[in-house]
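User: Second chain of the day. Same drill as before.
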Amino acid sequence: MPSPAVPSPPPALLAARVRDPYPYFAWLRQHAPVHPERRPGRPAVWQVSRYADVRALLTDARLSKDPDRVPGYVAGPAGLNRHLVHADPPDHTRLRTLVNTAFIPRRIAGLEPLITQTATHLLDRLERRSHVDVIADFAAPLTFRMICAILGVPQELDDARTRDTLMATIAPDPGADPARVDDALHALLDVLIRDKRAGSPIGGSDLLGALVQASDESGAMSEEELRSTAYLLLLVGHDTTMNLIGNGTLALLHHPGQAARLTAPEPDPRLVATAVEELLRYDSPVRDATFRCAAETITLHGRRIEAGDIVSLLIGSANRDGTAFPDPDRLELTRTPNDHLAFGYGPHFCIGAALARLEGSLALPLLLQRLGPISLAKPADELPWRPTRVMRGLAALPVVRT
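Assistant: Same format as last time:
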């Protein structure tokens, strides 16, 4: 029996996907819940868009995280792909165990004074400015400083130049030489690892030092795994939370009545907690789940996904599915229950979820209180979004204090 014809999404929805993917996601959920996206010169990607399917497949052992199953597929910067996001058990279990202790909620909670102090310092510097870029002036330096504190990055490398080197790998300048971008990133990671081997303090919250120690003394990690894991933690520990603050601020600017509930001098902690969860759902900082491919044939909604095919689980779409969330396109900061998938689900649940939640719960109310009334400095449809497949985040969020 032939497979049903593949419907084609309207070109206007495709063209607007970077700026606003949600109409495209709604079309997929209604017309093509398992849709093969075909791109010239690249493997087809099966897009899965409904909440129930995405949640089920996030824990399905028939989907592998190993990019080597797809010949010719490039998962990320050369030589930096041997980390827990691109691993199946038992390697995933081994690597995740090594980094788990740095991200347990109790240890993350101990960072609250540092997060508040850093956020306050950044906002103090903006006190007399009428124009502010929420990303460059606040979200990026705050989140990068926190992941640097956890990893034990030397203070002289905790700066904008290091952030730029890292971010260039996921949102490269079209005119940049990819080889030079990769060389700069490898050089940065080598400096960090060499610093730990030279005798920088190991232990406490210094995760990178502990990983270097595990690699050198017990062989628990290979050198490639060590370098790849350092890259992964710097990237996701910074980028995801930066997107939460940026996307969340934009959502609140579009919903001033909701934002006003967070600007009290001492907002209700229960409201702040549910607000962060709703902002994570409403415009998820991770648009698509990280790499997966079929380890065996999977049939879903009449579509046959062959072994070796790439499968993209659309987290942003699942979080706007009306079968899971009543009135899903409405922002409601008190929404409960709120079983969103912004951090994934199952064995690959985001290891930095507790850090992102804490930073969001502290940074967003402080930002709104300290800046006072703000409005967008340019029309919303002119805001620059970083054109990345997995993450969803603004390249800049210019606002005016009114």
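The chain has a mean pLDDT of 91.

User: Great, on to the next one.
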